[in-house]
Design a protein that fits this description.
This protein is α+β, with helices and mostly antiparallel strands and 162 residues long. It has helices at 27-31, 51-58, 81-85, 132-143; strands at 7-12, 16-21, 35-40, 43-47, 62-66, 71-77, 103-108, 111-119, 122-128, 148-150. 19% of the residues lie in helices and 37% in strands. The strands form two sheets. Strands 7-8-9-6-1-10 form a six-stranded mixed sheet, with helices on one face. The chain has a four-stranded antiparallel sheet with strand order 3-4-2-5, with helices on one face. A hairpin with a 2-residue loop joins strand 7 (103-108) and strand 8.
Length: 162
């Protein structure tokens, strides 16, 4: 297996809401079926959540803020996604404990990222939109530019510009 056994698709992250909960509250209990990523001990990212529902669910147990407008989600698909993350990265993506549902914060090629393992052969990497061209360029140089797909909705930048 090589780094080339992977493809990358980058698009706006969509509706992402940062949720901070005070002690005693637990996001999975409060948020029901909303998709969650636990990104810090008391902070979650809610994916595709509706803001109107949150006020009633959260009440005085925490605070939330929309952050999705500034984020890009890169989906890495294929058996080589773990080794690709370690190119210019500071994280052991091959650790057996880093499995489906795990989330890690690290740096790849000077870009701060959150990595969410989606399945055995895929993960989502979240980064600030301004850094997306840097990651696209790095990954394109490793796996081939034709294997990196950028949404038309992303800020225009040539893959490989840094």
């Amino acid at each position: 297996m090589t780094d080339r056994d992977v493809s990358v698709s980058m698009e706006p992250a969509g509706e992402v809401i940062a949720l901070d909960l005070w002690s005693g509250a637990d996001a999975p209990d409060l948020c029901g079926k909303i998709a969650l990523l636990r990104v810090e001990p008391r902070r979650w990212w809610l994916l595709d959540a509706r803001e109107a529902d949150l006020t009633a669910m959260i009440g005085a147990r925490g605070a939330w803020a929309p952050i999705g407008g500034g984020l890009v989600r890169a989906t890495l698909t294929g058996p080589g996604w773990r080794s690709l993350l370690m190119v210019a990265g500071l994280f052991d993506a091959e650790d057996p404990a880093f499995g489906t549902g795990a989330v890690a914060a690290t740096v790849i090629h000077h870009v701060p990222v959150r990595i969410a393992v989606v399945g055995e052969t895929s993960c989502d990497v979240y980064c600030a939109a301004s850094y997306a061209p840097t990651l696209a360029g790095l990954w394109g140089s490793v796996i081939g530019r034709e294997r990196v797909s950028l949404s038309r909705e992303l800020p225009s930048a040539t893959i490989g510009s840094e």
